[in-house]
Structure formats: C-alpha cells, structure tokens
Amino acid sequence: MLTDGISMQTLTVDEFDEPILLNLIDTPGWVADDNGEDAARVCTNLVAFLEEQMDSRVIEELKVRRDKYAPNLIVHACLYFMDPLHNEYRATDIPIIKELGTRVNLIPVVGKSDLITLTQKLQFQLEFINSMKRHADQVSLFDLPGDSVDANESMTGDVPLTMSRDTRTFDKHPDFLGRCYPWGRIDCMDPDQSDFAVLRTMLLESHRDMLRQHTVSSIYEEYRCRQLQSKKRDDLLQRCGSLKLRNAFNSSALELNGHRQV
User: Which of 87, 114, 119, 230 could form a disulfide with 164 if both were Cys (CB 3.0 to 4.6 A apart)?
Assistant: First the structure.
C-alpha cells in the first residue's frame, strides 16, 4: 500500500529501562523517472516538513514566556530506504541524501534484502559507501559520536543496514517474524539474516541519546542560527505555513515588544 501523504503515529515502547514515547512518521516514497521530477517533489515536501518542526521550536524559544508543555516534534532519525534491485540509485539518491542529511540524522537502509544474495548485499554496501565519500562527504552517516567506540563500530560498520519485511506470524511459532519460501525461511530477528534487531536496538537503546543529542546540539542549533541570522521574520513565518505557528509567532512578537517597553 502506497503512502499518499505524511502521517504520524505515537506509541509507548515499554521494553527497555524506561518507557519511551515514540513518534513514527510515515512519508511517501518516489518513483524513479528520467528527469527526477517525482524524487525532487518528494524531497521538497520532506525538507519542508523537517524544517517546519524546527521552525516551531525556534518560534517557541522566541517567546518571553515559553510553554513548557509545548510539543517538540523535531525528528531525530530518518530511515532512508533504498531498492537493492535498482542499479542506478546514485543518480537520484545522492541529492536527496545530501538535502535530508543536513536536517536530520539519516540512516540508510536497504529494503527487501531477501531478494539479493550475500555477495550482492556486500557489493551494494561497498558502492554506497564509496559513493557517499565521493559525493556527500558533508553528510555524517558513519562517524556520529556514539555512547562507545564498540557500539559505533558494530552499528555503522555495515552501512547501509539491510532488512526484509514481515507481515505474518505462524501458528506453530507465534513469536517468529519472517517469511517462508519453498527453499527455506527468513527470520527478521536473526542478525545473520536481517539488521532489523540491530536497528531496533540502535534507535531505542544504544544510540538513542546520541541521536537526540546530535539533533539538538548540531542539526537544530545550526539551523536555528541560520534562520535567525539570514531569515527575516516574514520569511520564517512563510516557511512555517501553519496558522497555529503564525499565531504563536505574532504572540511572541507582541510579548517581545511589551518586554522592551518595560
């Protein structure tokens, strides 16, 4: 089923040391075409969405009296899925990765990895890493500071990660998540067959704090400084495009003016 627009679902994960309030955001994919118009359109919409979340935070911080209960919906990680059977991924993926990678922690993932052999998987990973080093060296995909050196090496040594999707469970093995083929079965939780468990641990446990810290101290801070230094008030307001954010901005402007008169 194709995703038509950007949608968000909030759930609580209670399997680690503390409950985690997790926002899952589903976004449209794009269809490869000769001129790349569909990819450019999807990328523009995603960039606008990411920036609107950061703009809302900038506006909140401009207020004299901030709302401590104001939702903070800044995105801390983006899973960028690539088709392993599409050999010309570099021509269209690289510009999108460069655009998104300056606005969110980008984690490249190869979907449908059960359709390729181990040799093809390793070749895809090698070509991707070399391509990133040549064309997108300013995007930090591999060297973000983690909680430990060992954790980083185990998580980022096989970028992009590979996963196969499961939509079924089996009566005889209710805890098994995978796919059955005439020649065998794929276990999505087996690290030798899929990186799903690795990615899950990375996002929710081992690298969770690192991703949030890098978002706040680096990605958001750089964006905030650029906005305040180079964007006029009307430009920022137009980028938000939300009536709620516009009202908040106007409210903050009134508060600032009143504060100066005191």
Answer: 114
